[in-house]
Design brief:
Elements lengths: L2 H13 L11 H5 L4 E8 L4 E5 L1 H7 L12 H11 L1 E3 L2 H5 L9 E9 L19 E9 L2 E8 L8 H6 L17 E2 H16 L6 E7 L4 E8 L6 H9 L2 H17 L11 H25 L2 E2 L22 E2 L8 E2 L9 H24 L12 H22 L3 H10 L1 H15 L8 E3 L2 E3 L6 H15 L5 H8 L13 H25 L3 H15 L7 H14 L5 H14 L11 H8 L2 H16 L5
Antiparallel strand pairs: 1-3, 1-4, 2-8, 5-6, 6-9, 7-9, 8-9, 10-11, 12-14, 13-14
Helix pairs in contact: 7-19, 7-20, 8-9, 10-11, 10-12, 11-12, 12-13, 14-17, 15-18, 17-18, 19-22, 20-22
């Protein structure tokens, strides 16, 4: 081998050196010994790289900043060596399956224990990661990232094992979730949904890569700065395991501090440290409950704290939806039970805060008191305070006001905002006379008004006409495709609400103009421009993501990894609803630099989003 080739190889190895740090080691394993089950893993053969997130990999320090958006032979080798793994589970051991030494990795990998409501044992003794292992953690530029892989084999913590009282072979076709496998489609749904959320400032885990195997089975690797959920605390709380609970709390606090998300409270007294934890939980869940409600995000919050991260980040896109309208009576049918609704998520989030009030008291006093003792705890008042503040500010943002204007209005004109919010909510929550009916994955009752449409169209109409809209004009804009004639009868009540809405809306415009010492038309012009982005006509819904993934899956055999990566980038850019982000003339740039085939796929994807814009 020439010196030039040797140099190239050495540089290549150096470029991907950080992959070797993701090797099963993780501080949670040693700091919370009761919080995990460890598994030996073996190399899984036959994997192909379907997707690799170059930007996320750069952010994590896995590839250099100047790395091209292509899978080099050495990068492919590193990815497969690091992530193409399958656990040696209890079924394998029970059945004495023989694996050669060279395919067994030297380090163990953990499945974490946490509370899950679908387990017969409601205290978390048997539940946790049922088909996921934590690959490890990597620190880059002051941030530690957790990395986990879904689809690496069935663990003893899956519901199936504990309901049927037996272990299952990985890939067993007689059992679904308990088989320990994941699919390529799951990864793509996570990819497209999470990237749209990420672009719109909604915290979420993200897909780093997908490896595909025979029959569409896959390993989906996900990353986030801190993958701890409330349920990682609640199992130890339910069991009264003070030692383990303290270990989880201390671990979580340390990670938040090291990542720069919290002030450093590690050296403070137990009372100060754990009360700070409770304060952050109250604030986080108050705001995130409001965010989910206002963005129509169904996350299935419940008492176990399993379906959300500790900082309010979205996790596990299997049940995540975003509605086009406020379909507040939708419930997901999970065979044995129905889910919560969007409106019920607030109370579930508040219940999580109440549980943290209980566990904080337990950590400080070393004595566990009943949860009911904390039903009037001050942290719940803090939750309500942050929830209400977020609701008001979210509404002003959706109207199109700048952040400074939002703060000024909230500070000086809260009653005016309250009046408009009541009117807004009246229309938002109006439901079809059809009532509740079944859909493919649950039940729902249709909302009949599209609030995005009225917030987008009103300011420009007021700007050009300078007068209130007539009732029939207003209804023509705000009505959704779900509204039937019987839902839109022009009653005196409806006419009154239409006028109240418009008067309250313009009053806020005028109050903002007064505070900013501007004319009404200047504020309306600004709001018109911003609300046209915030309330974009075609916004993704859960259904649209499902159909988009179906479209991409059909095209995927002809797509390279780089092409799929570009599709993700372009799609998430197209769905960015942040008016403070510099919007380039993306369509012109797209048409100039993107191959015709990709342009056609993107147009089809956009068409799907438009068609599903009001759905579930």
């Amino acid at each position: 081998m020439s010196s030039v080739k040797k140099s190239e190889v050495q540089e290549s190895v150096k470029a991907y050196a950080n992959f070797s740090k993701i090797n099963g080691s993780h501080p949670f394993k040693t700091q919370v010994p009761d919080g995990r089950v460890e598994y030996q893993v073996r190399t899984k053969k036959g994997g192909k790289i379907v997707f690799f997130h170059f930007d996320l990999a750069r952010e994590m320090g896995l590839i250099p900043k100047d790395h091209p958006n292509e899978i080099t032979p050495e990068l492919e080798k590193q990815i497969l060596h690091t992530f193409s793994l399958q656990i040696i589970n209890e079924w394998d051991i029970e059945n004495k399956i023989d694996f050669t030494k060279d395919e067994i990795r030297p380090n163990t990998y953990m499945a974490t224990r946490y509370l899950q409501l679908q387990h017969p044992d409601k205290s978390g003794r048997t539940s946790g990661d049922g088909r996921t292992i934590w690959n490890g953690t990597i620190r880059h530029q002051g941030v530690s990232w957790d990395v986990s892989s879904c689809g690496t084999g069935g663990t003893k913590l899956s519901p199936a094992v504990n309901i049927q009282k037996k272990y299952f072979q990985t890939g067993d076709p007689t059992i679904s979730y308990g088989c320990g496998c994941s699919e390529t489609g799951e990864g793509l749904e996570t990819l497209f949904f999470s990237e749209v959320f990420q672009k719109n400032n909604i915290k979420t885990e993200r897909l780093l890569l997908t490896l595909e195997y025979d029959k569409g089975l896959a390993i989906n690797v996900r990353a986030y700065p801190n993958l701890i959920r409330p349920s990682h605390f609640f199992n130890h709380l339910k069991q009264g395991n003070y030692k383990a609970l303290k270990q989880v709390a201390d671990y979580y606090i340390e990670r938040q501090v090291l990542n720069g998300d919290w002030e450093d409270v590690r050296a403070k007294s137990s009372s100060e440290k754990y009360n700070y934890l409770l304060k952050k939980v109250s604030e986080t869940f108050g705001r995130v409950a409001a965010k989910f409600e206002d963005e129509y995000i169904f996350c299935w919050l419940d008492w176990d704290g399993d379906n959300i991260l500790m900082d309010g980040g979205v996790i596990d896109y299997g049940s995540i939806r975003q509605f086009g309208l406020f379909h507040s009576e939708y419930r997901y049918d999970d065979v044995e039970r129905f889910s919560t609704t969007i409106l019920e998520q607030k109370q579930k989030a508040k219940y999580i805060v109440q549980a943290f009030a209980q566990l904080t008291d337990f950590l400080i006093r070393k004595k566990k008191r009943p949860l009911a003792d904390f039903k009037n705890h001050s942290s719940l008042n803090q939750f309500e305070h942050h929830f209400e503040e977020a609701k008001y500010k979210n509404l002003l943002h959706k109207m199109g006001f700048k952040a400074k204007h939002v703060d000024d209005l909230f500070k000086h004109n809260l009653n005016d905002i309250r009046v408009f919010r009541r009117s807004f909510t009246w229309f938002e929550r109006a439901k079809s006379q059809r009532g509740v009916y079944k859909v493919a994955d649950g039940i729902t009752r249709d909302a009949i008004f599209c609030m995005r449409d009225i917030l987008r169209e009103l300011p420009q109409l007021y700007l050009t006409r300078g007068e209130l809209l007539k009732s029939d004009e207003f209804i023509e804009i705000i009505k959704s495709s779900y509204a039937k004639k019987t839902d839109l009868n022009m009653t005196s009540m409806l006419k009154t609400q239409i006028k109240k809405f418009q008067v309250a809306y313009l009053n806020l415009i005028d109050m903002c103009a007064l505070l900013q010492k501007k004319e009404r038309h200047q504020i309306l012009l600004d709001v018109t421009m911003r609300s046209s982005i915030i309330n974009k006509y075609d916004r993704v819904t859960g259904d649209s993501i499902t159909y988009v993934v179906e479209k991409v899956s059909k095209c995927r055999p002809k797509l390279t990894n780089a092409e799929l990566y570009r599709l993700m980038k372009d799609f998430s850019h197209y769905q960015t609803l942040d008016p403070d982000v510099m919007h380039k003339t993306h369509r012109e740039d797209l048409e100039a630099n993107t191959p015709k085939r990709e342009q056609n796929i993107l147009r089809d994807m956009a068409g799907i989003v438009r068609e599903c814009r009001e759905g579930l």
